[in-house]
Design a protein that fits this description.
Low-confidence stretches: none
Order of helices and strands: EEEEEEH
Largest sheet: 6 strands, antiparallel
Mean pLDDT: 85
Structural class: alpha+beta
CATH architecture: Sandwich
Shape: globular
CATH topology: Immunoglobulin-like
Number of strands: 6
Helix content: 10-25%
Number of helices: 1
């Protein structure tokens, strides 16, 4: 997180079908069932169905998603290596 624009982090969800996230520095992986975002507050996993990235601007740290959003989970670095591995494996099969 060496970019000051990404220091601030917000999440806005609209009717569980649209999600806007700021403070994003990277998208580690994505498919129709899950998106793994690196944010200024840690790794954020977004789970659901028919997920699509509708906006991606990493220079400004912004990502927008649409679809049926059913889960938002933050993963600390220490925990993501232990507990998160199984969660990511399930999401990104």
């Amino acid at each position: 997180m060496n970019n000051n624009i990404n220091d601030s982090h917000t999440i806005e969800m609209i009717s569980r079908s649209e999600l806007r996230v700021s403070g994003v520095s990277d998208v580690h992986s994505f498919n129709e069932e899950g998106v793994l975002l690196e944010t200024s507050q840690g790794l954020l996993t977004v789970g659901g169905e028919d997920l699509r990235i509708t906006k991606l601007n990493l220079e400004q740290g912004e990502v927008a998603l649409s679809g049926d959003i059913t889960m938002l989970v933050y993963n600390d670095d220490a925990l993501s290596e232990k507990k998160g591995a199984s969660l990511f494996t399930k999401l990104f099969k």
